[in-house]
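queue> holo job accepted (zinc ion)
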Amino acid sequence: MENHEGGCLCGAVRYRVHGEPARSSVCHCTYCQKRTGSAFGIGAYFRAEQVELTRGRLTVYEHRSDESGRWLRNEFCPVCGVIVTWTAEALPGLRAIAGGTFDDPKWIRPDRHGWTRSAHPWVAMPPGAQGFEKSAMLPTGS
Ligand SMILES: [Zn+2]
Ligand SMILES: [Zn+2]
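queue> job finished
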């Protein structure tokens, strides 16, 4: 099984993931735009037991979705403020890793684009990607 490592900007928080993500996606929702200060977020979703925190501590901030009222818990490095991971009420048992925090972020190949209705107008969908007007993260039931 392949392992991948990553961490926050300052290095106080480090993690290791075991195996492949259950899914990975790009999210163009206004919450992810605010959360990242950018145009979209990248999330690699692992089963919780695949994710191992190897150094440091994370601080939790809970946000309630405007649209669904469900919680999202961002976990960030208290030193540098980078959101490293999160969990969502809508996705029980899964833990997302912020795609850009991997030491080699290019190993994540997100193929689903959620909330395209709020995507910035200059964002183009890569060929082969699946776009969703609203959430791309509905549980698959598997
Ligand atoms: Zn840090
Ligand atoms: Zn989002």
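queue> The longest strand covers residues 41-47.
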